[in-house]
């Protein structure tokens, strides 16, 4: 029984965990306010429920959806884009798209749809784009699929292995397509006129491995196609057969992408291109020539109509047997009217001088990503080479000397645009020679660290982006556009050196700031891109950038790329949104105000000190601190005096003529300490007072109005008071020389007031008969 309970508990736990971990079919969708919902790559196994009419775009690609039912999308009446590509869909119910009358883009590519149904597409009257590539169907069905799609512009169908037949009825109803892509790599049957039903196709992308049906397809398309693109085709065994037709040929461009061809196949291809007499543009992309250039000269000479081609583009051409390759003289007759040639990333290291001389109409030449060096360029740009050339692009080759490059190109009298970016020209010479008509020069990504007069002053456009320049000091009176981003400049160039400048892009440098005066100095500047710099957001810079409304019309990357680098507390904030405190923006005024306030405070403190004797208290505090540092009281054997007499100088007559006579001439005599007589000369008076009090048995204070007016008497009174309280003795003797009311004693003599309230004092009698008793009492007090 316990084992059964344990089993039930385990099963319940597993079930509960499974329920908790089951994915919510609606939660993986993320939708923005416009109704664009993203659910791609979420491992969904079905279309999420709860979709409403607010959804305008739904991306469910790259999931595991296997089935589309009638109810999944019935509420999405405003849906314009539905992407279901790269799922596992093998079944779509007949009316699944019935409510999608607004749908413009439908992607069902790379699923498991073995049979296509026309009922799916019948309600989609607004459809512009339909992608059915990569599904395992052999044909497009028994009935026309697209006859109701009158607005369709882009159609993609086929499968690289399983799609084997193109039927005559497949494209019925379609009259105009911007792009048609057919993956028929394993095509085994083509019904004549299957593609002819489409009256106009701008661009056809055709995947055919073997050219068996190429001529039949071409025959149907010659009068309706603008651009034919062959992909993944082997033209090794291609044979051109002339077609008898009076129809006007409309093909203007032919593209061969990932095509393999031999010398014989190339001869046949030239025949095909010659037949399509209106062709102007030929492109080879990622193609392989399995030959050695042994082309049939007779074929080349007899097919002169191909010379109408104006644009030739070759990218990533592979010639495995290049080491055995013939010269290109057999092709010279085909190059007479070519105006634009691009040979990119094809390991070209030499252009024969004779070929360059035959290219008399060439205006544009792009040799990017090849192996050109100065010596081979010398051979290519020989005398009478490229006489009409205006634009030359040598980007990402192996050029090293800017001086030598300019010298080699002097033969190109009509050259105006030169792109030699992504080479290595560090360092550059001080002077160079260039073609006289040069207007555009691209030196970006060339590792240069400084600019010299090697740069031609006739330029109208100069690009020196992504180098290591720390300054720009060239004078270029005709320059209209300057691209200098990605360097190390700390300030804008001098405007007086660039009087005609219209466009300047100087982002990604180390510029800290620029001012209104600097921008105004560029009289004709219309466009400035200066973002992504290390801006110091000073008050002046913020005021200038935030208050100038017209600045946004000049700064093309404002405000997103303008961020503060300092001060640190605003780092990373947009310049437009940054605000500094008053203390940061008006520092001089704040410092002045603080100084004024401090001066007034000091002045007020001075007045208060004078009014309430603050200076006196400070002096007293210093003296007190000095006194506290000394030993508390000298031992009895160190006492030198019976009494220290503290008196005012105005009372010195009484002290010196009466008190001294009565006490020092008494038997036994008393030894008194008087400041006039016993203070050590040169010693600080405070130290004299403290020492005298410490070395005296008693301290006699001769009190009078003169006493309370004396600061030194106050010190002596205080130091004696320290002894009274710190040592708990009775060292002070008060002698009242004249009547003294407490009100007459200043407030700062607080200790005198306290002592007079707590100690008995001797009064000097005016009656001579009583004076003898006064002296007796005084001598008694001293001895006590």
From TrEMBL:
Keywords, comma-separated and alphabetical: Cytoplasmic vesicle, Disulfide bond, Glycoprotein, Immunity, Inflammatory response, Innate immunity, Leucine-rich repeat, Membrane, NAD, Receptor, Repeat, Signal, Transmembrane, Transmembrane helix
Keyword rRNA-binding: no
Topology of this chain in the membrane: Single-pass type I membrane protein
Transmembrane segments annotated in the record for this chain: 588-609
Matching InterPro entries: Cys-rich_flank_reg_C, Leu-rich_rpt, Leu-rich_rpt_typical-subtyp, LRR_dom_sf, TIR_dom, Toll-like_receptor, Toll_tir_struct_dom_sf
Residue intervals of the TIR domain: 639-782
Pfam families linked: LRR_8, LRRCT, TIR
Signal peptide positions (record): 1-21
Location within or outside the cell: Cytoplasmic vesicle, Phagosome membrane; Membrane raft; Membrane
PROSITE patterns noted in UniProt: LRR, TIR
Function description: Cooperates with LY96 to mediate the innate immune response to bacterial lipoproteins and other microbial cell wall components. Cooperates with TLR1 or TLR6 to mediate the innate immune response to bacterial lipoproteins or lipopeptides. Acts via MYD88 and TRAF6, leading to NF-kappa-B activation, cytokine secretion and the inflammatory response. May also promote apoptosis in response to lipoproteins.
Family: Belongs to the Toll-like receptor family.
Protein name, UniProt field: Toll-like receptor 2
Provenance organism: Pipistrellus nathusii (Nathusius' pipistrelle)
């Amino acid at each position: 029984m316990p084992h059964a309970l344990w089993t039930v508990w385990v099963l319940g736990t597993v079930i509960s965990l499974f329920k908790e971990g089951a994915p919510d079919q609606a939660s993986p969708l993320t939708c923005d306010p416009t109704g664009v919902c993203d659910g791609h790559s979420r491992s969904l196994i079905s279309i999420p429920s709860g979709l409403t009419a607010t959804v305008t775009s739904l991306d469910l690609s790259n999931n595991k959806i296997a089935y589309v039912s009638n109810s999944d999308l019935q509420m999405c009446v405003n849906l314009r884009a539905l992407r279901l590509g790269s799922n596992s869909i093998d079944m779509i119910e007949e009316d699944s798209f019935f409510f999608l009358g607004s749908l413009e883009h439908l992607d069902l590519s790379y699923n498991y749809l073995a049979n296509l149904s026309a009922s799916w597409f019948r309600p989609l009257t607004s459809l512009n784009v339909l992608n059915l590539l990569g599904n395992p169907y052999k044909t497009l069905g028994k009935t026309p699929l697209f006859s109701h799609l009158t607005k369709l512009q882009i159609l993609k169908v086929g499968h690289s292995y399983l799609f084997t037949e193109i039927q005559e009825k497949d494209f019925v109803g379609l009259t105009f397509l911007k792009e048609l892509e057919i993956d028929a790599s394993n095509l085994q049957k083509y019904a004549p006129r299957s593609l002819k039903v489409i009256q106009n196709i701008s661009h056809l992308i055709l995947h055919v491995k073997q050219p068996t049906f190429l001529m039949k397809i071409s025959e149907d398309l010659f009068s309706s196609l603008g651009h034919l693109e062959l992909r993944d085709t082997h033209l090794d065994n291609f044979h051109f057969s002339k077609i008898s037709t009076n129809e006007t040929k409309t093909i203007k461009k032919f593209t061969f992408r990932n095509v393999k061809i031999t010398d014989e196949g190339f001869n046949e291809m030239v025949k095909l291109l010659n037949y399509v007499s209106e062709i102007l543009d030929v492109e080879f992309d990622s193609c392989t020539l399995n030959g050695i250039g042994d082309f049939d000269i007779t074929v080349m000479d007899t097919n002169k109509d191909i010379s109408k081609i104006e644009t030739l583009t070759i990218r990533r051409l592979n010639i495995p047997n290049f080491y055995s390759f013939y010269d290109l003289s057999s092709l010279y007759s085909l190059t007479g009217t070519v105006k634009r040639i691009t040979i990119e990333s094809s390991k070209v290291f030499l252009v024969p001088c004779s070929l360059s001389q035959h290219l008399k109409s060439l205006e544009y030449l792009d040799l990017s990503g090849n192996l050109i060096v100065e010596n081979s360029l010398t051979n290519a740009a020989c005398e009478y080479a490229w006489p009409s050339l205006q634009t030359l692009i040598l980007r990402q080759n192996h050029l090293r000397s800017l001086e030598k490059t300019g010298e080699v190109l002097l033969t190109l009298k009509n050259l105006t645009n030169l792109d030699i970016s992504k080479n290595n020209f560090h360092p550059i010479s001080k002077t160079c020679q260039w073609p006289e008509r040069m207007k555009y020069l691209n030196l970006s990504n060339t590792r240069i660290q400084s600019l010299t007069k090697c740069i031609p002053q006739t330029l109208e456009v100069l690009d020196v982006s992504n180098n290591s320049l720390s300054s720009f000091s060239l004078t270029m009176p005709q320059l209209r556009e300057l691209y200098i981003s990605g360097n190390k400049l700390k300030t804008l160039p001098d405007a007086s050196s660039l009087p005609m400048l219209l466009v300047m892009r100087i982002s990604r440098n180390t510029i800290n700031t620029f001012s209104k005066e600097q921008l105004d100095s560029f009289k004709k500047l219309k466009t400035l891109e200066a973002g992504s710099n290390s801006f110091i957001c000073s008050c002046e810079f913020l005021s200038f950038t935030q208050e100038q409304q017209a600045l946004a019309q000049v700064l093309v990357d404002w405000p997103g790329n303008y961020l503060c680098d300092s001060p640190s507390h605003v780092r990373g904030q947009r310049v437009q949104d940054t605000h500094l405190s008053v203390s940061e923006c008006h520092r001089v005024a704040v410092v002045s105000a603080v100084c004024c306030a401090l001066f007034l405070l000091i002045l007020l403190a001075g007045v208060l000190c004078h009014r309430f004797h603050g200076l006196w208290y400070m002096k007293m505090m210093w003296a007190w601190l000095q006194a506290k540092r000394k030993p508390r009281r000298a031992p009895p054997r160190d006492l030198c005096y019976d009494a220290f007499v503290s008196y005012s100088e105005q009372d010195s007559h009484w002290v010196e003529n009466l008190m001294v006579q009565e006490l020092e001439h008494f038997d036994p005599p008393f030894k008194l300490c008087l400041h006039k007589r016993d203070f050590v000369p040169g010693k600080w008076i405070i130290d004299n007072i403290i020492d005298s009090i410490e070395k005296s048995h008693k301290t006699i204070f001769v009190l009078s109005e003169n006493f309370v007016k004396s600061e030194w008497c106050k010190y002596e009174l205080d130091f004696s008071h320290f002894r009274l309280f710190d040592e708990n003795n009775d060292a002070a003797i008060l002698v009242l020389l004249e009547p003294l009311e407490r009100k007459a004693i200043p407030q700062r003599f607080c200790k005198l007031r306290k002592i007079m309230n707590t100690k008995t004092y001797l009064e000097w009698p005016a009656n001579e008969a009583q004076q003898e008793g006064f002296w007796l009492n005084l001598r008694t007090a001293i001895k006590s």
